[in-house]
Amino acid sequence: MACRKHSTITEFVLSGLSNDPHIETLLFVLGQGIYLLTIRGNLMMMLIRADSRLHTPMYFFLSNLSFLDLCLSSVTVPKLLNYLLSEKKTISVEGCLTQVFIVFITPGTEACLLSVMAYDRYAAICHPLLYGQVMSSQLCVRLVLASWGLACLSSVVIVLLALTLDFCEAQTIHHYTCELPSLFPLSCSDISINVDILICSILLHGLGTFLPIFFSYNRIVSTILSISSTSGRTKAFSTCSSHLIGVPLFFGSGVIHYLMPMSGSSLDLLLFLQYSAVTPLLNPLIYSLKNKEVKAAVRRTSWEISLSCDKDMVTKTVFFCISSLVPTFSHT
Question: 3-class DSSP state for residue 125?
Fold first, then answer.
């Protein structure tokens, strides 16, 4: 079979979801609504970090989690919306590889960050008197940077290996976005190394981050059950209930999606949609639903923004979003 190096190919054709115009219109309206709500929810979760009452490690990690969800959703959903409206459903090679990189680095960092958040809850519940010393601002910054660094290193290796692939005449990606498993069927090169690296990356970011979460919550549950008062157990459990909901939501769809044998199948597309669009939408709701501090901060921040509707509003909003990623802790 004749092959061409991917450097001579200018674009790929995306072929995913439905080709029915009526269904595409419905999906566009639904996807646009999901994306707008995702932006609003995650921006608000980042903005509330400007509230001095929320200068704690938990909310520092939560603002970084919202930033990651915003990045993942912004690199996949807009392209899907464009795909639904365009007759020519294509993506450039550069855009495709950029998507591959971001689709790997954001979930990889989020998996590490969820593990870090589990350790934070472990320190808060199992060692409350030492919590301020254990979760120092320096350690929190290092944990977040390590999460980004590990995911970035893995993503760079994966993309560099993808650059060495030769692609056959077929250029149709059976997906609505670019992912490495979707590119494998188009290659006429030996992809065994790429597959091995992909599996190692999944195990590292999947199993390697889930095990610390599992062991942390084993200790947390044991500590909570040892509390004599019912109110004390309820209060301790409420501090980690949101994280317990978010972890299976993220790991369940993400790991199953990457371990599926057939990329581009209907179930695979639905899992990726849930993993890249629905989960970033739900996370702000999950982490604020039973959190009175977050609800109060959202109300205060919304009121302050509404009073700041002037020409400097955009500048202020961007400043608050950036400042939300900077650790400013006040341990109590």
Answer: helix
